[in-house]
Design goal:
The chain is an all-alpha fold. The chain has a domain at about 55-190: Tetracycline Repressor, domain 2 (Orthogonal Bundle), CATH 1.10.357. Helix content is about 70%, strand content about 0%. It has 10 helices and no strands. α4 (about 55-75) packs across α5 and α4 packs parallel to α7 (about 120-125). InterPro entries: Homeodomain-like_sf, HTH-type_TetR-like_transc_reg, HTH_TetR, Tet_transcr_reg_TetR-rel_C_sf, TetR-like_HI_0893_C. One of its GO terms (molecular function) is transcription cis-regulatory region binding. It comes from Paenibacillus albidus. It holds the Pfam family TetR_N.
């Protein structure tokens, strides 16, 4: 899985296996012995790299958020307009959810879990895409493009809408075509824009 490319073979096997188990069985049902059995890595070897199940969960969280950040921010260009970057970023978030559904579901389900340490959340925030996107929204407010609302709140509000669409897509309740994605992104833009439509 590309999101674990920066890890060694053992760590990668543990992280990949843990992600699959958590999504298929839930966090509480995922034990160290089960991770060892399914990954083919001995418990002793796992403990060489991770001190506990919580440690694995937090490393998994950081790895996915960092990968997501790189995926979404790739190709973002400061020379582009706020509108172009807005569209590119949200299209990438949708593409991320479609291409990497398990990683997407993990972040969506466990971002507020007590399993995730505050330090992990802080590191993830710096390396993820929410921070840069909030900066883009701040700039849009400063330039008079967006209504004067808190940028963090606006990003979270829009993310909630996109999450709902991706969940519907994953459960075969909605076909998330490029056209539907474009309409959804336009709706997000219109919700906070002082001028409605792409040409505003």
């Amino acid at each position: 899985m590309p999101m674990f490319e920066r890890y060694n073979k053992v760590q990668k096997a543990v992280l990949e296996t843990t992600l699959h188990l958590i999504i298929d069985r839930e966090l509480q049902a995922t034990s160290m012995s089960l991770i060892a059995k399914d990954s083919g890595v001995s418990t002793g070897n796992i403990y060489h790299y991770f001190s506990s199940k919580e440690d694995i969960i937090n490393e998994l969280y950081k790895a996915i958020v960092l990968f997501n950040g790189e995926f979404v921010m790739k190709g973002m260009n400061e020379a582009e307009s706020v509108l172009e970057r807005f569209r590119r970023a949200w299209r990438s978030v949708i593409e991320l959810g479609k291409q990497h559904p398990k990683g997407f579901r993990f972040i969506e389900q466990y971002s507020f879990s007590p399993y995730i340490y505050e330090q992990s959340k802080l590191e993830a925030y710096k390396g993820g895409w929410c921070g840069p996107l909030e900066e883009l929204y701040r700039r849009a407010v400063e330039e008079g493009l967006f209504v004067s609302l808190d940028s963090h709140m606006m990003v979270q509000m829009h993310y909630g809408s996109i999450v709902y669409l991706l969940k519907s897509h994953q459960q075969n309740m909605l076909e998330l075509t490029d056209d539907v994605a474009e309409q959804a992104i336009l709706a997000c833009w219109n919700a906070v824009s002082k001028e409605k439509g792409w040409n505003g």
